[in-house]
Design brief:
heterodimer; A: about 350 residues; alpha/beta; TIM Barrel; eight-stranded parallel barrel; 10 helices; about 35% helix; about 15% strand; globular; B: about 425 residues
């Protein structure tokens, strides 16, 4: 690239229906751990862990998944050290205070590698399991999600980065001036704060947004760090970056990753797949890709062992992690401007 | 329990820098505990090497102290969210149980059941849920509540919540077959989309001491935590709760009662006492006075000379008989406000035992053999030192007496606790 930028790569783990174990043998964490370790060795920016909403469509109950995504993220954080770890969590299944705590904690556990994937597509089965059988109208869901995300990011900034003093002899654990109440009162929620988890090592967990429709674009422009877009992404990515500029954010402050599912095409050869990724990246249709595949080692191995070296040969992919946190690997600044 | 003697259960109650209010100021306390996952991994491994049944985490969905000046002199305003913490510990340990508190007031049963079941799978059947209801205005304000629900309403919600969670865990809620849940506070349509628990169902823990809390425990709990200062208090609670089980068709052994104990152990009694005094000295005056004021329901205690006696107090509506006893004792022993404040801040309602390994083992043995406890939730004063000391000094003494296991015999938390597997 002329400006030296290389593409960002995420891999989405779409949980298979858990193997049916008639006995006590539960789902296999070590298989998933190996998969993520392989992604880390390959230098990918992040793994995106799906939760139930991504496997549920239509009117059937949600398919089985091996683990709930935020708990899985915590476990994976202890067996990896560089790769970003992003978990889906629904705005219907959680309260904003609880979700903000969970991800703030995950971010500290992972030393600044955590992200939250907020989907703007409601799962039609979900509300009925969370005591809201009437569900939400599309518009209510959107306004509620917008308010929810704003609260979560507000709570994440409640403690200044230098708030904790740990001053044993002076008897002051934190500086009272550097803790801030949120005092949010909105249409759907009221949340006083502060969060009872410390400030993130990367300023804030990374906010990934997915399932965006036209009506969600202004929300993403205000809040998102990363957006996952379906192919073709170009028009949407341009649109989003214009909207970001309009709300005072740098267009570079949001990374647009295009969802691709190259599983079936690996047989076509690594050059073909590399071509397919190179073209939209060079034409600035996106900042990188979200590789969607089932956690099947053989399929992933082919992608890592054949396609990634080809992308590196073309100068399209960095070979090591440039920073210590997910935010810095993605080339995102802190969010102090908000 | 055929061949060998009944043995006590032990929990390691991990809480930030320690259970003593001034723990974080101790020279060797790990002051950054609330932001250091490696510290917790180390504590978990210490507890596992000592064959503890479980790690236990408290929780609140909010900071602990509304007065920011007081809060800033303690370490309890920040820490890990416990579900994420225990999920991380699950894959860094192999045997020890992992129990977290979570409130029925600000969660939904479907989400909570799913999260704990996932923790249970990550740990191979070592998860437990400590059910609490929230009675804090600080928490309520984070969830849009205008006020706290009355006690009875909170427990009715908790009862329904527990019923839905266990129904989901046991695979007995399934909307497809027309048996979803549609109740007063909650509705659930689908079964959980996770496989069944490796231990049948995660372990249910409770801590409510009120009459309605005891009934809920008798109906649903596998383990009960409690605070009891004296042997008599502990025994009376133990007998009362075990006595309620028959009503729900359960056996006395179906519930393990584990009172909290805050030990300070050293090779000699004098040394242990010195360790305790050293911690007491570290309690900031503001913090001690605030806790004492709130306990005695006096708002202007700070106006009086701190090294002087407690002022004459008007008889107040809020004054309970236990508080009156405290006032009497302070007069009898001629304690200053500062001394009295430290006394309260240091103990905070829990059973404190200060002494040698043999003395502490004697105390635990007396309650265990005397029909007042099935085990204990150990609350180290500061971390890592007091957990290390308990593991290195008290556990071997209990093992020598045959009162505690020397090896894990099973893999799941239910195995360790000797609990039946739910059908």
């Amino acid at each position: 690239m002329a400006d030296g930028a290389t593409m960002h790569l995420a891999v989405s783990l779409v949980p298979e229906a858990a193997p049916s174990h008639p006995s006590d043998a539960g789902p296999d964490f070590s298989l998933l751990a190996r998969f993520v370790q392989k992604a880390e060795a390959a230098g990918l920016d992040m793994v995106v862990l799906a939760d139930s909403e991504l496997v549920a469509r239509g009117d059937a109950p949600n398919r089985q998944v091996p683990f709930e995504a935020t708990t899985l993220l915590a476990a994976l954080a202890t067996v990896t050290s560089r790769i970003g770890l992003v978990a889906a969590a629904s705005t219907v299944a959680h309260q904003p205070y609880n979700l903000a705590r969970r991800f703030a904690s995950l971010d500290i556990i992972s030393h600044g590698r955590a992200g939250w994937n907020a989907s703007m597509v409601p799962n039609p089965r979900e509300a009925a399991n969370f005591s809201r059988p009437e569900g939400f109208s599309g518009d209510d869901f959107r306004r509620r999600a917008e308010e929810f995300i704003g609260i979560v990011q507000g709570l994440w900034q409640g403690w200044d980065t230098d708030a904790l003093l740990f001053d044993k002899s002076g008897g002051r654990f934190f500086d009272p001036e550097k803790m801030h109440l949120l005092d949010h009162k909105g249409e759907f929620f009221s949340v006083r704060g502060p969060l009872n988890v410390a400030r993130s090592p990367q300023d804030m967990p990374v906010l990934v947004m997915s399932g965006l429709s036209e009506a969600d674009m202004d929300i993403a422009a205000r809040f998102a760090d990363v957006i996952l877009l379906d192919e073709p992404a170009g028009a949407n990515a341009d649109d989003l970056k214009r909207r970001a500029l309009a709300v005072g954010r740098s267009p570079d402050a949001i990374k647009a990753l295009m969802n691709v599912a190259p599983g079936a095409e690996t047989a076509a050869g690594p050059e073909i797949i590399a071509d397919r990724l190179e073209e939209p990246f060079r034409s600035k249709s996106c900042d990188g890709f979200n590789i969607v595949m089932p956690p099947v080692e053989a399929v992933f191995d082919e992608f890592v062992d054949l396609v990634l070296p080809e992308l590196r040969r073309r100068g399209l992919l960095r070979s090591d992690y440039p920073g210590a946190t997910l935010r810095s690997d993605l080339g995102l600044a802190g969010r102090d401007e908000l | 329990m055929t061949a060998h003697r009944r043995q006590m259960k032990l929990g390691a109650f991990l809480w930030a820098t320690g259970h003593h209010i001034a723990a974080w100021r101790h020279p060797q306390a790990h002051v950054t505990a609330g932001v250091d996952i490696d510290h917790y991994i180390q504590l978990a491994r210490t507890a596992e090497a000592a064959k503890f049944d479980m790690i236990f985490c408290e929780d609140a969905a909010g900071v602990r102290e509304a007065n920011v000046n007081i809060a800033s002199q303690t370490s309890r305003s920040i820490g890990f969210e416990p579900i994420s913490l225990l999920s991380a510990l699950a894959v860094q340990t192999s045997h020890i149980g992992l129990v977290s508190t979570a409130s029925t007031s600000y969660n939904e049963p479907y989400g909570l059941a799913r999260t704990f079941l996932s923790l249970d799978h990550l740990s191979g059947g070592r998860a437990g849920w400590n059910l609490v209801t929230s009675a804090s205005h600080i928490e309520a304000a984070n969830f849009g509540s205008t006020g706290l629900r009355p006690h009875a309403d909170r427990y009715e919600r908790a009862r329904e919540f527990a019923e839905v969670v266990t129904g989901l865990w046991h695979g007995k809620l399934d909307g497809a077959s027309g048996s979803g849940h549609d109740g007063q506070s909650f509705s659930v349509r689908d079964p959980l989309n996770l496989p069944r628990s490796p231990q049948g169902a995660p372990v249910m823990v409770q801590a409510g001491a009120s009459d309605v809390g005891r009934d809920l425990a008798a109906r649903t709990a596998d383990v009960v935590f409690t605070a009891a200062q004296t042997f008599e208090e502990a025994k009376s609670f133990y007998e009362d709760l075990k006595g309620r089980l028959a009503t729900y068709g359960r056996e006395p052994d179906d519930i393990k009662i584990m009172p909290g104990v805050a030990p300070i152990v050293a090779a000699t009694e004098a040394e242990a006492q010195e360790k305790y005094e050293e911690l007491q000295e570290l309690i900031p005056d503001d913090v001690g006075i605030a806790l004492l004021s709130s306990y005695l329901s006096i708002s202007d205690l700070w106006r009086y000379p701190i090294d002087g006696p407690l002022p004459e107090l008007p008889a107040s509506e809020g004054m309970q008989s236990r508080q009156a006893l405290v006032v009497d004792q302070s007069r009898r022993d001629k304690l200053s406000i500062r001394q009295l404040a430290r006394h309260f801040a240091g103990a905070r309602g829990h059973w404190r035992v200060v002494g040698t390994p043999a003395q502490i083992a004697d105390e635990l043995e007396a309650r265990f053999e005397g029909g007042a406890a099935d085990g204990f939730n150990v609350m180290p004063s500061w971390f890592p030192g007091e957990l290390d000391a308990f593991a290195a000094l008290v556990v071997p003494e209990l093992q020598r007496r045959g009162l505690f296991r020397t090896e894990y015999e099973g893999r799941t938390l239910r195995d360790h606790l000797g609990l039946k597997r739910p059908i």
